[in-house]
Amino acid sequence: MTQKYEEYTGAVRTAQEYYNSDDADNFYFTIWGGEDIHVGMYRSDNEPIFDASRRTVERMAGRLGGLGSEARVLDVGAGYGGSARYLAREYGCEVVALNLSEVENERDRQMNREQGLDHLIEVVDASFEDLPYPDNAFDFVWSQDAMLHSGARAKVIDEVVRVLKSGGEFVFTDPMKSDGCPEEVLQPILDRLHLETLGSPGFYRERTAYLGMTELDYEDHHEQLPEHYGRVLRETEEREEELAGAVSREYIDNMKRGLGHWVEGGRNGHLEWGIFHFRNG
């Protein structure tokens, strides 16, 4: 199942081109450990990125009731599909891993086959702004650090609610601006992502409430955002020689600058991150 490229909005097309590039694919696959591309939850400054990233997945899954072989889960913005494999392996769920990058999706499919999980996971090339599924199709919708790449986040939430069953649950993380944060202080981050704005806790609460969702919890882990990007920055610096064979010098230099902006914004209190948990209805 594939959506046509021309149907994507500008921000999504930009993200697709970025994540399909050899530089981005080789960087994320190498530095993040090959399974996940999202913010981790760290117990120490030098903990492996893979371990911290997997802890986020475990924490999110632990919030959901009713995960099991009868559950159908949609992961929007699934990256390399590590979360989908975790859910399928640990809970026996049927998972749809929807993602815009065909390059990442091919890696995802290969790992599913290698780990014997391809019978439980369907990898779909598509945008979360226009989900190719009927109403009330899923018991759970899951997303990690993906919705920031949309220029139409309200539509993404609309689509999530549409495909989620009544009583179904939505759990997600997203790098956000703090409520009331002046937009201009985040301009270096926005310029790098080719975005006009970031979401905020207030935005997500307002949109989900408008659509009739009930907020079950928000775990505030804002301190993990600069911790994570600082950890990725150190890993990048320590492995520059290894990366140089597969990632361009320009990309590495731009990445280090970009990571520094995320660290600065998080430490200055301009950014938020945590686990949102909602029920439909």
Question: If you had to describe this structure to a student in words, what would you say it looks like?
Answer:
With 281 residues, the protein is an alpha/beta fold. Helices cover 44% and strands 19% of the residues. It is built from eleven helices and nine strands. The strands form two sheets. Strands 3-2-1-4-5-9-7 form a seven-stranded mixed sheet, sandwiched between helices. Strands 6-8 form a two-stranded antiparallel ribbon. Helix 3 (49-62) crosses helix 4 (82-91). The chain starts with 9 loop residues before the first helix and ends with a strand. The relative contact order is 0.16.
Uncertain parts: 1-6
| Structural class computed from helices and strand pairing | alpha/beta
Strand content: 15-25%
- Over all CA atoms, what is the radius of gyration? 18 Å
Taking the sheet with the most strands, its summary is: 7 strands, mixed
Would you tell me the overall average pLDDT?
92
**Assembly context of the chains:** single chain
- Envelope shape: globular
The helical percent reads: 40-55%
Provide the spatial order of strands within the biggest beta sheet.
Answer: 3-2-1-4-5-9-7
Secondary-structure element pattern, one letter each: HHHEHEHEEHEEHHEHHHEE
Number of strands: 9
Number of helices: 11
User: Termini separation (Å)?
Assistant: 29 Å
